[in-house]
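Data availability (excerpt). The following record was deposited with the supplementary files.
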Amino acid sequence: MDIKQIQELIKFVSRSGVNEVAIEQKDFKITIKTNQTPTVVPAPVATYALPAAAAPQLVSVPETKTPEVATEDTSRYITIKSPMIGTFYRSSNPDKPSFLNVGDEVAVGKVICVIEAMKLFNEIESEISGRVVKVLVDNASPVEYDQPLFLVEPM
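Predicted structure:
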């Protein structure tokens, strides 16, 4: 590329409104940057005035009591948490049954789920023994590190 072509390219870039152009050939590389900042023009906002008769009125609503929800005492349960970030799967294959269901007994070293992280399927093994009380995560949903997966009643 000669100097005349470079000058024409600079003129073209400045007229086009592009902020940056990079061209790379076998033995030549050029990057042209402009200091143009895009101009933002706000769209007109329509305002409407309500007639006095249509003005909103305050209406009193009778107070209702919300029923008290009994919270389950989970202090006696042990929480199995996710050891990594990824996608939680209850089985190794959609055609196969879940590793754990509510009421199942789990032992140390038993595979309880699979977490996919970066296209790798990691089998997660239990570190405790007990009976599964609750599955806290839906199948094929994303999980964070240290997110609770199962509640287990220790044996």
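Summary of structural features: Residues 3-16 form the longest helix (14 residues).
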